[in-house]
Design brief:
Strand order of the largest sheet: 1-2-3
CATH class of the largest domain: Mainly Alpha
Number of domains: 2
Structural class: mainly alpha
Shape: globular
Number of helices: 12
Radius of gyration: 22 Å
CATH topology of the largest domain: Cytochrome p450-Terp, domain 2
Largest sheet: 3 strands, antiparallel
CATH architecture of the largest domain: Orthogonal Bundle
Length: 262
């Protein structure tokens, strides 16, 4: 018996390439944008133009934030191995975790868990506020952070947050995850005793969850966006190198400290 390996994505023969049941050359190339294709491949359904606009807004929001650890890792790796662009890109992507990029996934999953436990979607802002208040109170009692609250640079307002909410509203896609996240922004000062901004990575997670994308893949979309940013960082490193300066600065300012005796 011949072993079979089913796929609904791409396949090819001597004359054609098929992707998602479409002829790649005739039906997709020049007609479908990369963001739309990504959404389509993941969900196995073609997104609406409203979904494409919201999804691509998320990708733009997460593409690049300057000299983050992921960008520095990519540049330093490229300095060490300029023959390996793939290694430099991989180095940057491997840094996507709980502090950088992973917040998108963490926030989406946190919101989804709160909604699932609630059992039904609140009917109005008051209902979302009550649900958010209970979630924040429980998180504080358990000494857990609320994903998506606070930002190391944007102490008052992350400019991405209101814009993504606005775009989702314009496209009729301001769903329960995003509304719950907004409610957390309204009620958390009552519990935490201070006001923190809703950060862009968190709102991206809420928006992606409302688009119905798989919870377990939310970090993947953040990484997809950051791959574009890292490629830009490497292109800039070629034009205006700084990686060697970073290396030399650390190396020349290293201070040897003898190990403590046991």
């Amino acid at each position: 018996m011949t072993q079979e390996y089913p796929t609904s994505l791409g396949t090819s023969d001597a004359d054609t390439i098929s992707l998602l049941g479409q002829n790649l050359a005739d039906d997709l190339m020049g007609k479908v944008g990369f963001g739309e294709l990504t959404f389509w491949m993941v969900t196995q359904r073609r997104p609406t133009q409203s979904e494409v606009r919201v999804f691509e807004s998320v990708l733009v929001a997460l593409a690049d934030h300057g000299f983050t650890p992921t960008a520095i890792a990519a540049r330093i790796t490229y300095l060490s191995a300029p023959d390996s662009v793939q290694g430099a890109l991989a180095a940057g992507l491997l840094g996507g975790g709980s502090r950088f990029l992973g917040v998108t996934e963490d926030c989406g999953q946190f919101l989804d868990g709160v909604l699932a436990e609630a059992g039904e979607i609140p009917a109005d802002d008051a209902g979302f506020d009550a649900l958010a208040l209970a979630a924040v109170t429980r998180a504080k009692a358990e000494r857990k952070f609320i994903p998506g609250l606070g930002h190391p640079v944007h102490k008052v307002l992350d400019p991405r947050t209101p814009r993504l909410i606005e775009i989702a509203e314009e496209e009729g896609l301001r769903g329960p995850h995003l509304r719950l996240f907004e409610a957390i922004g309204r009620v958390h000062p009552q519990v935490l005793g201070r006001t923190l901004p809703l950060n862009g990575a968190g709102v991206c997670g809420a928006v992606l969850a409302d688009l119905g994308l798989p919870m377990a893949l939310l970090r993947g979309f953040a990484l997809l966006a950051r791959a574009a940013g890292l490629l830009g960082q490497l292109a800039e490193e070629q034009r205006t190198p700084i990686a060697n300066d970073i290396y030399m600065s650390v190396d020349r300012n290293a201070v040897y400290v003898p190990p403590d005796p046991e």
